[in-house]
From TrEMBL, chain A:
Domain of life of the organism encoding this protein: Bacteria
NCBIfam families from the UniProt entry: hypE (TIGR02124)
Protein name according to UniProt: Hydrogenase maturation carbamoyl dehydratase HypE
PANTHER family in UniProt: CARBAMOYL DEHYDRATASE HYPE (PTHR30303:SF0), HYDROGENASE ISOENZYMES FORMATION PROTEIN HYPE (PTHR30303)
Any single GO BP term: protein maturation
Similarity field: Belongs to the HypE family.
PurM-like N-terminal domain mapped to chain residues: 51-162
Domain PurM-like C-terminal stretches: 174-319
Organism of origin: Marichromatium gracile (Chromatium gracile)
Pfam families: AIRS, AIRS_C
TrEMBL record, chain B:
One Pfam match: HypD
Iron listed as a keyword: yes
Name recorded for this polypeptide: Hydrogenase maturation factor
Species the sequence originates in: Marichromatium gracile
Keyword Iron tagged: yes
GO biological process: protein maturation
GO molecular function terms listed in the Swiss-Prot or TrEMBL record: 4 iron, 4 sulfur cluster binding; carbon monoxide binding; iron ion binding
NCBIfam families the record matches: hypD
InterPro entries: Hyd_form_HypD (IPR002780), HypD_1 (IPR042243), HypD_2_sf (IPR042244)
Keyword list, A-Z: Iron, Metal-binding
Family membership: Belongs to the HypD family.
Length: 348, 371
């Protein structure tokens, strides 16, 4: 995002559209960067105006993560691709216990995309970053021909610092540990599904898209010996638990009755034959915790707005087959398997 | 969730389980075949089998439309897109089903075929309206339940003169399939009868089951408490030595069924002479094709595609499993060569298939039994 001087004719943010020249490196691109990206994302590191941002880092181990966002539709109840691109990467850092510092953002924009929509997305991204206490310090913009993209794709990379003494990792779950879920599942996936015009049914469900590092900090302050954290995004809670079981070489036993599901999410899943356990979340986490600390952990989570509905959903068990099993609300029991195939494409 | 949670009540389930346990004769086996994949799914998803006494076993029947669709029909669908360049609209669960040469519609789409996943026949009609320059084919499958929506779409297409819309018809009929299994001598003691199918056809078409085969049949709803109550009704019939058609699913099923839908189906379809069922073989008068008045909307006439009948994978026990003779775990491919991610046999390709349900939900019980 290098810049010379501001062009004289302003962008037409009401009716203008992205053209190939906006990605060509010339005056039009500079105008787009100034008129949208720099205007919303402004911070001293971005303002350095070099091909890279340079900054000092606090002591501790660095954590780095990257995430591409291709969600369709771009705007949905409870969020949009801009906020999601911040939350997704911040959460990937937070699941390692990292305090997120900076993000980079790469935009691939389709020719003809409305400047007003782009402006709205970047404004939302800036707001999400501000709320999360991170800055977007470097970026890139490319424009592809009409038909070669779908509006806009955003890739964000994040950098954070893990404080001393925090050791969170997916292979640390041990038999006897408690499994805790931060709140109701399936809200993001169902909010997206309801927006897809060809389904034609409306629900009041909003995406749970949110940055979780504040909640994580509160959890680590209460229980520094937490074993692992993971956010159940694509593949839902089922995939998340199966991943952890495989990584740690353990089984899991959960209780369906303890898993919070918003009634409208449950109803939408019922209608469409979907299992809420397989539906994506963007603002929830699973924590594995030593059993003796689970009450402290739950108290800390419930005191935070993003963990108000936190629930102790089950236990880690010994199992060479590494199965996730569930006592059903009905009183029987079953295996909770990975999702097979494609349930819903382009949810994040 | 109102009208749903009531049928999944934990306390009621416990009481029903206790009643069933008290009434079964411990000296005999109870083999109950659930015809429908919907029942198979409910039994596994809610863990109903574990609530049953040890000698009462659910035997999983062939009522999963994706499972019984012959592989050659998948090959034909792929050929429609590749040789005739049509836009194929299909329900999502058909996308992963391998055809005779192991290719799926997903693969065909990745290689450039125009395959759209739809949730209803209305989506397919909309695509045809929006793209008058494209030939749009709806890949119709299913038992009697999914047939009326296809019929409605065909009547709409005719009324609108939607010349670029057609249907690749694979609708099948429940009673002939049930008759075929029973004629084969399936080793079962009673039948949990179809739920949604019966809302359409009513209870009358099942009269042959007690009359010709001396087996009790209870039309059962798809909720887990429906399954348990129907199980109790069947246990009582077995104990009493009676064989009757009973209707547990009274809130939706009548004796004569939905006459309006039946009339609609009769206008739009006619019975095929024969249809090859995957796993069960050819069954006479067991499927539907478009009636002559709708011939212009028949994709098989509009785009003739011949495909050789496909051979089933070697070692696959699906035919025996679909007839209730074997359990999924008795197949040597189960969980080794054949899993939901890479299905070989018919029963693994849909989540309603016996093998897929067993794999996804049911592995615990067998392990407990083995251990």
């Amino acid at each position: 995002m290098t810049s010379q001087s501001s062009p004289h004719t302003p962008l037409d943010l009401d009716h203008g559209r992205v053209e190939m020249t906006h990605g060509a490196g010339g005056r039009a691109m500079d105008q787009l960067i100034d008129g949208i990206f720099r205007r919303h994302l402004d911070n001293p590191l971005l303002a350095q105006g070099n091909d890279q941002a340079r900054f000092a880092v606090p002591p501790g181990r660095l954590a780095m993560s990257t995430d591409g966002h291709v969600v369709s539709p771009l705007f949905f109840p409870g969020g949009d691709i801009g906020a999601l691109a911040v939350h997704g990467t911040v959460n990937d850092l937070a699941m390692g216990g990292a305090q997120p510092l900076h993000l980079s953002a790469g935009f691939i924009i389709e020719e003809g995309f409305a400047l007003a929509a782009l402006d709205r997305i970047v404004a939302s991204m800036a707001r999400a970053a501000r709320e999360a206490g991170v800055t977007v310090v470097t970026g890139d913009t490319k424009v592809v021909e009409r038909g070669k993209g779908d509006g806009v794709f955003i890739t964000t990379t994040g950098l954070g610092v893990v404080p001393e003494g925090i050791e969170l990792s997916g292979e640390r779950a041990r038999p006897g540990d408690a499994i805790v879920l931060s709140g109701g599942i399936g809200e993001h996936g169902v909010a997206i599904l309801a927006q897809r015009e060809h389904l034609g049914f409306a629900t009041g469900v909003r995406s749970d898209s949110a940055a979780l590092h504040g909640l994580v900090a509160a959890m680590l302050a209460a229980v520094p010996g937490l074993r692992c954290l993971r956010d159940p995004t694509r593949g839902g809670l089922a995939a998340c638990l199966n991943e952890l079981a495989r990584q740690s070489g353990v089984g899991m036993q959960i209780r369906e009755a303890a898993i919070p599901v918003h009634p409208e999410v449950a109803a939408a899943c019922e209608l469409l034959g979907l299992d809420p356990l397989h539906i994506a979340n963007e603002g929830k986490l699973v924590a594995i915790c030593p059993p003796e600390r689970v009450d402290d952990l739950l108290a800390a989570m419930r005191a935070h707005p993003l963990g108000a509905a936190a629930s102790h959903i089950g236990e880690v068990v010994e199992d060479t087959l590494r199965l996730v099993q569930m006592e059903t609300g009905f009183g029987g029991s079953r295996v909770v398997d990975w999702l097979t195939g494609e349930q819903l494409p382009r949810i994040c | 969730m109102r009208y749903v949670d009531e049928f999944r009540d934990h306390a009621l389930a416990k009481r029903l389980a206790a009643t069933i346990a008290a009434e079964v004769d411990p000296g005999r086996d109870y083999r109950l075949m659930e015809f429908c994949g919907g029942h198979t799914h409910a039994i596994f998803r809610y863990g109903v089998q574990q609530l049953m006494p040890p000698r009462l076993r659910f035997v999983h029947g062939p009522g999963c439309p994706v499972c019984v669709l012959p592989m050659a029909r998948i090959d034909q669908a792929i050929a429609l897109t590749e040789r005739h360049g049509v836009t194929l609209c299909t329900y999502g669960d058909l996308m992963r089903v391998p055809g005779g040469d192991r290719r799926t519609l997903f693969q065909a789409r990745a290689e450039g075929a125009d395959v759209r996943m739809v949730y209803s026949t209305q989506d397919a009609l909309r695509i045809a309206r929006e793209q008058p320059g494209r030939e749009v084919v709806f890949f119709a499958i299913g038992f009697e339940t999914t047939t009326p929506p296809t019929a409605v779409a065909l009547e709409q297409a005719r009324a609108e003169g939607l010349a670029n819309f057609s249907v690749f018809c694979n609708h099948v009929l429940t009673p002939p399939a049930l008759a075929a299994i029973l004629a084969d001598g399936a080793r079962i003691d009673a039948i949990l009868g179809p739920s949604h199918v019966s809302t359409l056809i009513g209870t009358a078409p099942y009269a042959f089951v007690p009359e010709q085969h001396r087996l009790p049949l209870v039309i059962a709803g798809f909720e887990p408490l429906d399954v348990m109550q129907s199980t109790l009704m069947l246990v009582r019939q077995i104990n009493a030595g009676t064989a009757r058609v009973e209707n547990q699913y009274r809130r939706a099923v009548s004796e004569s069924g939905n006459r309006k839908a039946q009339a609609l189906m009769a206008r739009v379809f006619r019975v095929r002479e024969r249809f090859a069922w995957r796993g069960l073989g050819e069954i006479a008068e067991s499927a539907l094709e478009l009636a002559p008045e709708f011939a212009e909307f028949d994709a098989e006439r509009r785009f003739p595609v011949e495909c050789a009948p496909a051979r089933e994978p070697r070692g696959c026990e699906c035919p025996a499993i679909l007839r209730g003779e074997k359990r999924p775990t008795e197949c040597r491919l189960f969980g080794t060569g054949c899993t939901p991610a890479h299905p070989l046999g018919a029963c693994m390709v849909s989540s309603e298939g016996a093998c897929a349900a067993y794999w996804s939900y049911g592995r615990t019980r067998d392990r407990a039994a083995a251990g």
